[in-house]
Specification:
about 160 residues; single chain; globular; alpha+beta
Amino acid sequence: MLEKTLFRDAMSRLGAAVNIITTDGPAGRAGFTASAVCSVTDDPPTLLVCLNRQASVWPVFKENRHLCVNTLAANQSELSTLFGGKTPMETRFAAAQWQTGVTGCPLLEGALVSFDCQISQVVSVGTHDILFCQLKDIVSAGEPHGLMWFDRRYHPLISAA
């Protein structure tokens, strides 16, 4: 069996977009930073988000059954750090401007793109749940510069266009 540190070190070399995942509903408002987001299929449009079942936000997402994947722009790394820590939810959400998506989830103003979704299926693997999310709406911003997490730090992605 591979050691966790070996696996984590290897995964640090797999670059990924930085996202703030949000929800709002009967269980309350919550958000966290994630790079474990992936396209699944375009028919029906579906993506997946991985969430540790030990995370403080897990019960909120489980009960609300919808979420928004807000893909961060190059200038939003401070928000990623804020949503990735132990900061109270009120403080996290107060640090940015939000709109309400069709599912009722918070959409981050200035995000590169926001995917407003309904959770259609949950699969447990090890310590995490894989949330399969069917898209209900997509909102794109004018900012073409993205943010990537690679080698345990942020890197801006500058569009050639």
